[in-house]
Amino acid sequence: MQGDARRDTGLAVILGAVLILGLPLIADTNMLTLLVVYGMLALSLGLIWGFGGILCFGQAAFFGLGAYTFAIAGINIGESTLPLILAVLVPAAAAALLGAFMFYGRLGDVYLAVITLVFSLILFRWLSTTAGPAYVIGNARLGGYNGIPGFPLLNVPGYPRWELWGDPLYYVAAAALLIVFLLVSWLLRSSFGRIAIGIRENEERVSLLGYDIRARKTVLFAIGAGIAGLAGALFAAWAEVVTPSLFGLQQSAEIIIWCIVGGLGTRFGPVLGAAVLTWVKIVLGGQGAIDNMLVMGLILVLFVLFLPRGIAPELARLWGWVTGGTRRPARRRAPRGGTADG
Amino acid sequence: MDLSVVILIEVLYAIASLILISAGLAVVFGMMKVINLAHGEFMVLGGYTTITAVGLGVNIFVAMLIVAPIVVGLFGLIVERLVFRHLYGRMIDTMLASWGLSLMMIGGFKMIFGNTTTGVAGPIPGFTVGNYQVNGYNLFIIVVSVLLLLAMLALLRGTRFGLIARGTMQRADMAAAMGHSPDRIYMMTFALGSALAGLAGAVLAPLVGLVPTAGAAFIAKAFITVIAGGPVLVAGLASAAGTFGLVNQVFSFLVSPVVGDVALLVTAIVLLRLLPRGITARFFRGRL
Fold it and tell me: What is this structure's pTM?
């Protein structure tokens, strides 16, 4: 078990480092930064949905909260180290409150999905109306549909003048993704993670074993939101503007599509799904013949119908087949539609 | 006095439009347990059908009340055969597949109708109550939604199809044992729900400018109305729409329309927390 964990970590670090250093040779770092940010966002949902069984339709809400927190705190403070920390803590706190409200109410899957969706819609609606000068937080005007431009970008801690953009931002974001990935791996190996997976598989049984599933789900939900918030802050630093569309329905939809296409119940799948689909979207955006929403929708429908477990498990199987079948393919059951035993 | 009449009409209109928006979903989600996130796009399809039919010279009432439901119903039938048929009983998968469908439809609308607002003129002139102008079309919507509720009640209660459909939704295996084909009944019920969505979109089209993404505005309201309504179809629809329509209009009048919308969503969250299985799980139990 110990050796397994060490090998897993080593493999992730080596593979991650190779990808981080290798990809800029074949692609533009500006685009890669976006892929990395979206990968982290997908990982946040992949954690709570794929391993915790919590289907959150409003993960974009925490992404957007992180971005807005980063922008607003940045304008008020004037540098970006503290805002970056706040961008993790504020969404996590919001998620803890919302999660406590939902999980202690023992709401079912569908209601959970609807409430998280409604939560992000409320934020979207409200922020879209904050155009007037009356809506300010400290020195930051919320700016309605146009959002907030001109906040301090990511800087080296303690040196507000050394702003990071372009290539350095890519390396920072990619390193952050690798660190988050390792932390998620560690969390899933810990007893907390194992119990979370247990809750996904059979909530009733785990609660009968004496674990407080409500508290555990709330904490996991908050952790996922914190990761989404970090991704939001990095997105803000990349885009240099935050707008209410971060909270939009389409953003939420895309996160879910990434997870499905990549593969639920895997750590690497959602990141892969996000990167591939965002890349496809950028490529499609360059041509005008077919609307890219049509293509994304078609991809989602086809995956649900024909490949509901996503790409990553298939890749793992292929890998096992190539290496002679010595390693058992990752045969984790995805939680979708899993009402088999309560 | 005049003002109170106007406010009453506005509140009734808000309730009526919620009923219209949610009726199709109440059948597809409430009865069949298919989480159809493309419901909003089905409505938009109804709206575009109406506009196209009117453009071709069809009478607007015929276009709204007959052509649009038939077209959207047929579309629902095709989609059910291609996609949803394979997903019954897998609630989360229906949700994801229908989300994909909704994105595809938005993309399709953009390619066919362009990313602009299209509209059709309302066919009924306004009239005045004292010093206030009232949109006559609002009254038409109130009438349509009342008739719709009565028709649904009559269909589910009074006809053989309604009886078989209700039975199939409860125990498909028993219905099959009695010699009915659940597959066909699911298909027809889904088409019926789609047709209702098409009707709603068509009737509301003259009031809202149609853009390809207009469906998103309907979907959240429709879902919270159906979910808050709970298991009893018609009574749930009426009671939830009544609650939300009232809250929405009161806050719209007192503060602003946006606050009205936010108040509706907040009410929905609180209501779901208090009555997680819907209003009619506690009241009106066992009726229709």
Answer: 0.81
